[in-house]
Amino acid sequence: EVDRMRMVLDAVGVGGPVLIVGHSLASLYVEAFGRVYPERSAGLVMVDGSFVLAPWRVVPARWGVRAAHRAVRVAQSVTAAMGVHRWPSAGVWTLVVPPPPEGFTDDQRRWAGRVFGQPRFMTALLAENAVFATMDRDLRDLRRTHQLPDVPIDVVVGEVPGSH
Prior knowledge:
Blueprint: H1 2-11, E1 18-23, H2 26-36, E2 41-47, H3 61-81, H4 90-96, H5 106-115, H6 119-145, E3 153-156
Parallel strand pairs: 1-2, 2-3
Helix pairs in contact: 1-2, 2-6, 3-6
């Protein structure tokens, strides 16, 4: 992913240092980018970053990714046979994104309807979970060999009301 980020920057002609921001699992990419490309990092921001205290893996990552693709294909076949061509997204969205105190706006609900719960989102979500432990291990390996750049680094976290 870090090389992909560099290639995107190169493709759009951005050669200088950039501010890298990532949420959740992407916070691992942010830290790794800073460690691998310190000269291209102006700052790092990790929002509600992910981490693993005791990494474990039941199956190899590649098996999990293949299983994610298969599971979504099977679900698509079953729902198509039932005449369902758009998967319900509201239920998935509320599981993934806690609502703000004022609730979701109409625009947010329309956006969620086009993204969450749809086959591409579900495949990405399942594949991401399948490779999480491997990516965490790779980042821990990078920490042994690559220092963080001497740039501003911010970690932003939030607390769900009522949780401790």
